[in-house]
FG-GAP repeat protein
Amino acid sequence: MKNVLIRNGFFLFSILISINCLANNFDGFINNDKYEIYYFDIDHDGINDAVVNDLSNEEILVFLNVNGKYKYKYKSENYNFQGIYMVRKIKEEKGDDVNLSIISMFSGAGGQEKKYFLGINDNKLELVQTVTFDSSYNNDSYSLRICVINKSGKRLFIILCHAHFYKSRYGVSRPSKWMLS
């Protein structure tokens, strides 16, 4: 009985390892409409690496370019929050502690945008800073609220307001002057 359990356990372990290897094989993402691939230098070594975004927004994978081959290195957290936000763009960042940013938009009304700054620290991809942009229009007044949260938990709030609009020739209201409140 022990022998059967050990064999079954080994068999299941082998399957899990095989699935993990297949899931992290870069060639499987190329020319596949289910993924967006961004090429830029993640680790600041002068060579373009690859960032793969699963269009269902379940995961973002980072592949480093090692001797001309893309090797799986990092997997990010889920930044869509069960479909509430959609990843719009992934960009290279050249800061000391920031390697890339993920820009996501609220999938409903309201136009909220979040920008996540990620860095490589202790051989892990970690969230360094989150910036949230939230715009609203109320009683002929437009406001833009910006919230910056650092990994230390320190927050900064900025609110830009405009009370007067003018009509453009295209019928779109645009603020003519901003004030900081």
Observations:
- DSSP finds one helix and 13 strands in the chain.
- The CA atoms of residues 9 and 86 lie 39 Å apart.
